[in-house]
Amino acid sequence: MIPYPPLGPRALASYQRLRLEIDALKNVLDQRKPSGNMGLPTVRALESVRHRANKLFCRHADLPWFPWLTEPTLSQADFVILVARLAAGLRQFEALHADQLAPWPDEDDDFDDAPAPRRDDGLPSPHL
Q: What is the dihedral of CA 61, 64, 67, 69, to 10 degrees?
């Protein structure tokens, strides 16, 4: 892995804000299941997240770049795809700078992250 220069305090703060916003967007997709087109306030919120991601990822050629959102409305499919791409880019950024980023406070709270207990009935584990 190529060693990257240390992140400055502004980059760390931008990363933390971006992480919070992407977590909030993913939470909407996981729990609320939006329907219909996204209006102008949602497009503006996504535009600010897109801008922050591009600004944070610009030093890495292998991280995604996100184009402007030009339409005043956004379909649900486009919203889901954009949030998934933002989350994937953030995970890749975290992998590149894992030595500089502290673990996220709620990473150990998710029950989905815990490994499945060993099965003793001879059947394969469901997570394999």
A: -150
Please give the structure tokens belonging to residue 96.
């590149």
Per-residue pLDDT tens over the stretch 76-103: 888 899 999 999 999 999 988 888 887 7
pLDDT tens string 43-66: 899 999 999 999 999 988 889 999
Contacts 24+ apart (CB under 8 A), 74-77: 74/37, 74/38, 74/42, 74/43, 74/46, 75/37, 75/38, 76/34, 76/35, 76/36, 76/37, 76/38
- Residue 37 near residue 76, CB atoms below 8 Å: yes
Return the C-alpha torsion angle 102, 30, 56, 88, nearest 10: 90
Task: Report CA Rg, the chain.
Answer: 18
CA pair distance 38, 15, nearest whole angstrom: 25
Q: Which long-range contacts (CB under 8 A, 24 or more apart) does 6-11 make?
A: 6/100, 7/97, 7/100, 7/101, 11/56
